[in-house]
Structure prediction request, 223 residues.
Amino acid sequence: MCEQTLRALESREFDSYGSKRVDPPVLRYGIGVSDHRRNGKVAGSYWDALEAHRQAWPALGLPFDPYKECRDALGTDWPRGVVVGHHDGREMGPGVAREPNQGFQVHFDDALREFSGDLLDAPLVAQFAFNLYLSVPKSGGEMVLWRHLWCPTDEAFRLPHSYGYDKAVVGDAESIELKPEVGEAILINPRYYHAVRPSRGSRRIALGFAVAMSDIGELLTWG
Prediction:
């Protein structure tokens, strides 16, 4: 599945996240809600962009939906299953193929902090980030995860107009380094600060989506 998905994606042109907020640039194939957040709300532009891109994945000609395959695998041992979440009654995007060849800044992801109220049409009690690796570089590309959650004093370390923080924000917090292999999936708590190191030698492409547990035990995803 990974090989077929990668071959299909390699023939497509990737977009990038908004350069004012995400620097160094991160390439993507798909629509992420983070680029369509306005005053803590999901902007109408998200739905317009998502509708335009819904035809892009079928156009790849794959005999399967890679995001559904990921959800099904993730839900194998979860009694309630894993489904795409809804916002105001509308289904969110299933995920994004990301290519952060120059790395990700130190940052955290937390829908409860980034959006006013509940992002999905269900109260969320926990959040995770899922990544399935289609291509990994010969060197670099490691994910680093620090045992440090956001606190108000961390804002002194935020980079201007950026999603990221100066590395000093994590201080001497305990950390773990993860070096993924093709075909491996990693599920983390993204509320802990994390970063991705620059890649060297080849592309780093992963299918990713957010996963949240609702107050009734559902696992809900979005891109």
About this structure: The two ends are 20 Å apart (CA to CA).
